[in-house]
Amino acid sequence: MFKKMLSLVVLLVSISTMLTGGWSKYFGGSDEDMGISVQQTIDGGYIVCGFTDSWGPGNESVYLLKTDDLGEMTWAKIFGGVETDVGFSIQQCTDSGYIICGYTESSGAGNYDIYLLKTDVNGVLSWTKTLGGTYEDRGKFICQTADNGFILTGLTYSYGAGLSDAFLIKLDDQGNTLWSKYFGGINHDWCASVQQTSDGGYIICGGTSSYGSGDYDVYLIKTDQDGNDLWIETFGGAQSDNGYSVKQTSDGGYIIVGDTKSYGAGINDVYVIKTDSCGDTLWTRIFGGSTHDIAYCIDETRSGNFIITGETSSFGAGYNDVYLISISASGDLIWSKTLGGIGADCGRSVSYTADGGYIITGGTTSYGAGNSDIYLLKTDSNGVAVEETVIYYPHQISYSINQRGSNLVSLEFSLSQSSNVQLDIYDVSGRFISTPLTGSYSAGNHNVTFNMENKGVYFFSMKIDQTTHTGKYIIF
């Protein structure tokens, strides 16, 4: 039987890690868990909301997670019923508690309804509300307003003029509706981000297929304090362009991030738009490579620069990686980073922190216990989570693949000293397959043989003590 031997000799490092104001953490169980929104709290720690499929009574439940300043869990809470319930946005309130919005299938009047939850500082539920009609309604973003009430945006199929419409809902401090407004035309329109502006009104952004020049265009709406539109702008080209996050900037204008299929080098690219206070474009920037790149969130730093997070399949080590981009006040690239492993990793929310660094949350299939876990990363001002410093010893790894109809894989490795070793296998989509090797091994040569059920492209991640080596092989 003919075997093609592929030998790979690499210098692997045993890493001494020094904190640079950064760390990475993973939270979750055996199924799917995702962080969607994160904020630094007044005690210097962090609050994350998203969903969990690992715990709770339903298909998915709202997941609320509190950590200290080093990312160690302080407490976690789960909310929801027996169906699907998701937390999409969180903010700490002036009473030190938290307001969360998302959507629920477990309660309310329709297929999905807007889900509002208010807790105290320890995550103990104060009240909940559901809003919506007989069809699908989803809350996407909420923030506290100057009067201690709340402003909420998202999408509705129950109300408005079109197939779906963007909504803006003003609530009092107990979650009671004071007024609601709907925006859109005869097709699909939605919003994903809102902020109260310095004049007491509101800025919201999303996407529209009712207006503009393309399949979807970025939708930017400025209202007064009562939700009446003052102006509406669309941005984009002939294809699909969407806005996912908007912030009023220190100069009184606005900055929007999302993705574009109309412009750029790839299938879709990160889309950044800077406007003046009237919504007129000052500049646009496109970032990305040859495949999929998207931005979900932006924040302004103390210096007037901007930090962006999202996901990229054009760059990085895995199927998708967290994409972190720093740009100047004029939109020039300062640096970009990818964070993650060989699986699918994404950044959904980023916030500038008091120490000048950044906190990011999203999801990871590269690390953690389940199909995907909540990914929480703290970086310094340069986007670095940890500093890798000291090389201690080399390891030699070789592996052989039987190409004569057998799915047998033989991996050989050599250790210069006793080490803990773990081998994880992933498919091309980043889905975890198996751990055929784990344990403590003595110095010397070792061999492990294992069987793969299906032919195709696979990735391996081999961790030796604190060092990870990744590679790819093909079963023919």
CATH topology of the largest domain: Neuraminidase
Report the major sheet. 4 strands, antiparallel
- Basic shape: globular
Mean pLDDT metric: 87
The total of helices stands at 0
What topology, given as strand order, has the largest sheet?
Answer: 1-32-33-36
Unreliable parts: 1-20, 387-405
What class, by secondary structure content?
mainly beta
- Report how far the terminal alpha carbons are from each other: 15 Å
Q: In the CATH hierarchy, what is the superfamily of the largest domain?
A: TolB, C-terminal domain
What is shown here, in short?
The protein is mainly beta.
Question: How would you portray this structure in words?
Answer:
The chain has 476 residues and is mainly β. It has two domains: 93 residues, Immunoglobulin-like (Sandwich); 369 residues, TolB, C-terminal domain (Neuraminidase). A four-stranded antiparallel beta sheet has the order 1-32-33-36, with no helix packed on it. A four-stranded antiparallel beta sheet has the order 3-30-29-28, with no helix packed on it. A four-stranded antiparallel beta sheet has the order 4-5-6-7, with no helix packed on it. The two termini are 15 Å apart.
Task: Please supply descriptive tags for the structure shown above.
476 residues, mainly beta, Immunoglobulin-like, Neuraminidase, 2 domains, 4-stranded antiparallel beta sheet, 0% helix
